[in-house]
Amino acid sequence: MATREHKNTVLMATDIPFWKASTGAEQRMTSLARYLSQAPFRLVTFYVGQLSPDDPKRIADSGLDVIFFESERPPEAFLARMSWYVDATRRQLQRLVGRGQLAATTTTADSSPQPLQIADYRWPWAIEQFREAVQRVRPDTIICQYVTMTYLLEALSLVERRRIRCLVDTHDILHDRGMQFGSAGYLHWLEISQAEETRLWNKFDAVIAIQDEEAAMIHEMAPDPKMIVTPHGIDYLLESANLNCTRKGDSNELVVGYIGSANYSNWHAINRFLIEAWPDLMELEFPQVKLLIAGKICSWFRMQGKGLEGNELMQRVELAGEVPGLEDFYRRIDIAVNPVLFGTGLKIKNVEAMAFGKPLVTTPQGVAGMSPQAKRACIVAENLIDFPGEIRRLIADPEECFRMGQDAGKVAKSDFSDKAAFAPLRAFLLDSA
Q1: Using CA of residue 242, residue 407, residue 258, residue 350, what is the dihedral sign?
Q2: Across all residues in the chain, what is the average pLDDT?
Q3: Which of 117, 128, 346, 353 is most buried, judging by how many CB atoms fall within 10 Å of its CB?
Q4: Residue 45's beta-bridge partner residues?
Q5: Which among 75-79, 93-97, 201-205 has the top mean pLDDT?
Q6: Is residue 302 part of a domain?
Q7: Which whole number is the average pLDDT over 242-268?
Q8: Which residues make beta-bridge pairs with 114?
Q9: Whole-prediction pTM
């Protein structure tokens, strides 16, 4: 009698609705989920949070297996701190964007900050639900998305803890990210110390880092868990990336593009680009240079309403908002820019630009954690003042611009294909089984 093929079952715990794929973290989690939903793996996602009306259809269309836990009694501390964070964010944005002008400097977020802390994420009701999920799913592996989900390991019995390999997907070194945001004068969503984050890493059998440099840093602080480097897999992009994304537009117009979610580092990046680099590019008449900004970051500009009318920095700037698909954005641009100046992890927007074969101009912070060959496939401007000169150089040499895009696409497929990105994780999961 034939026996049923055993699949390595992974239970992934998260409070992020990653199937929306509206941020870099969500896109990376979506890519990981798709990979782990294929043989020889089986993926079940345990989701803590509220569902929007369109979420069930999105999930069904993506073929994901998701267990939902929605509590009518979230922790009071979480609600209080999240309410403060949302209000403080709104107040800071209003101060930063000013009235009818872009902000040249940052300001202190609030005189009495109350950022979220690890303890605020501990939902006792979720622990009970997770215990039931573990008993029903019987996973070989548990992956917690961010250290904020560590508390769910309390649901495991001693026998289950010995049987199940537990991993945490870090995305960023959060205490380092928090310090970078604070130094720039911005809020960070979580307040966590190095000692606290290290203690949480040590609760796992393995720690997933998004890039090599952070893996080395984590291993130095927490040498016991096994380190697994898992960047971003782009196979989900290849079908659309292989479409002809060469822009068909007026030869007297060149489009520079930036796409980003509504977080502080993105706002700071495009804000500084408009102030320090854009005026030089606006002077070009042949070709005329247009700036296309897309993604949720556009909502920060729209907060100003009519205040932007007549602002000379917004000349030849189009705010496209959220786009149906990434290919819709990349088909419209000639050159991608990412003038990011702070933040940790791997810059997913850089990987995506390369996957779509676009020449990319970015910063040293933008290429942090990339391989040497990936860095060579980008133009790295040491500061924002250098951006116009690098973009002008590409404009003056169309053949070089085309070659850079081709090279970027090749490197993206070699460094960030699913096979390359997920190979270490695959090896660990199968070896553990």
Answers
A1: positive
A2: 86
A3: 353
A4: 12, 66
A5: 201-205
A6: yes
A7: 80
A8: none
A9: 0.88
